[in-house]
Design goal:
The chain is an alpha/beta fold and 357 residues long. It has 13 helices and 11 strands. The protein is 39% helix and 17% strand. It has helices at 16-28, 43-48, 90-100, 112-123, 148-166, 184-192, 207-219, 236-239, 243-251, 258-269, 290-309, 328-331, 343-350; strands spanning 2-8, 34-39, 51-54, 105-110, 128-132, 171-177, 197-199, 225-230, 273-277, 314-319, 322-327. Helix 1 (16-28) runs parallel beside helix 11 (290-309). The strands form 2 sheets. It has a 7-stranded mixed sheet, with helices on both faces. A 4-stranded parallel sheet has the order 7-8-6-9, with helices on both faces. The protein binds 6-O-phosphono-beta-D-fructofuranose. The site of 6-O-phosphono-beta-D-fructofuranose has 11 residues, from loops.
Length: 357
């Protein structure tokens, strides 16, 4: 008898279901006696003992379905050691649920915050295997996360659509792309969508450089400019602020997000009309793209192998096209940023894309 707990935590993304299907199909193809406990809404389900017993048939037909059949929620790592409103010790509660159900292991699908808690549970003696989920592609230790390519497709489609309307108007169009503190989605969608300017958190921008790009394009007869800006992009001035000062500035920002702040700065400096598009959570929605279906299936299958071998304490990842296992303690608490010196950025600059610096 193999008892596997499973949960999806943090923001959802495409291919969560595909990855869980991969795990279950992999395990069930080698072992007849499997019980699957699906915890509802992420760590919340583990804390409060909310779960559903699932069988392999619950994982059939979900390869192409977006979202997560288990539901998810954000349970910040920094609050994990803080008792809930009824004084419940969350970590002890999670351990209690795990032991009460006599689980052999817990499969956790999540991004950065999720991995910090997964590692904490490992330190507390639970058998944990994780899968790399996030549209942001910012998990340390893996070249790729599932959800990323699907989000890039959607953000690219948004920029493509902006492109056709942009050619009819002499305007500046700003498309704000998700990605939290990193710029992977913006960089890829920006290049794929032919953006003229790409602004990333990793490369603080100078507004005067952006204005020059707009004016130079106008002089060259290119009446419109498309700017792909990461939601976490930051100006050179703001990058000089201390972390606390910058947080305070963001908290008091009158504009809803960076795209609006940027638009205002461009309007003040040029005679251009500026329009803003924020695709927001559409970037996490819909069916996973074929790449993500394949990638998530591979990750799930590799997790099933570790479960069957009883090898715990790893995140499944991918390096140079090869599936790998990465110790959880190495992953937890680290972000994978865009390297401003990487080949992709150098090549993007070679074709005239400005990074505003
Ligand atoms: O981490 C995925 C992500 O979509 C980020 O790109 C974005 O900053 C954040 O989640 C949005 O979170 P929420 O769904 O909680 O608004």
């Amino acid at each position: 008898m193999l008892r596997i707990g499973m949960l999806t935590s943090g923001g959802d993304c495409q291919a969560l279901n595909a990855a869980m299907r991969g795990v279950v199909k992999g395990v069930c193809s080698k072992c007849d006696d499997v019980e699957i406990y699906g915890f509802q809404d992420g760590y919340k389900g583990l804390i409060y003992g909310n779960f559903e017993m699932l069988s392999s048939k619950d994982f059939s037909g979900i390869l192409t379905r977006g979202g997560t059949i288990l539901g998810t929620s954000r349970q910040p790592f920094k609050l994990m050691r803080v008792p809930d409103e009824n004084g419940l010790d969350k970590v002890e509660a999670m351990k209690h649920t795990y032991h009460k159900l006599c689980l052999d292991c817990l499969v956790i699908l999540g991004g950065n915050g999720t991995h910090k808690t997964a590692n904490l549970l490992r330190e507390e003696g639970l058998n944990i295997i994780t899968l790399p989920k996030t549209i942001d592609n910012d998990l340390w230790g893996t070249d790729m996360t599932f959800g990323f390519q699907s989000a890039v497709d959607i953000a690219t489609d948004t920029i493509d659509r902006i492109h056709t309307t942009a050619t009819s108007h002499s305007r500046v169009f700003i498309v704000e792309v998700m990605g939290h503190k990193v710029g992977h989605v913006t960089l890829h969608a920006g290049i794929a969508g032919g953006a003229d300017v790409i602004l990333l958190p990793e490369i603080p921008y100078d507004i005067e450089v952006i204005v020059d790009v707009i004016q130079n394009r106008s002089k060259a007869g290119k009446a419109f400019t498309i700017i792909a800006v990461a939601e976490g992009a930051i100006s050179k001035e703001d990058a000089k602020l201390k972390k606390k000062e910058y947080k305070e500035k963001l908290a008091n920002r009158k504009d809803p997000s960076i795209a609006y702040e940027l638009a205002e700065q461009i309007r003040e400096r040029t005679d251009k009309e500026v329009r803003i598009t924020v695709p927001g959570h559409t970037q996490r929605g819909g069916s996973p793209c074929p790449f993500d279906r394949v990638f998530a299936t591979r990750m799930g299958a590799a997790a099933s192998e570790l479960i069957l071998k009883k090898e715990y304490g790893y995140m499944i990842g991918n390096k140079n096209g090869k599936t790998i296992k990465v110790p959880l303690q190495d992953v937890a608490g680290k972000l994978k940023y865009v390297d401003p010196e990487c080949g992709l950025i150098k090549e993007a600059k070679m074709v005239g894309i400005s990074f505003g610096s």
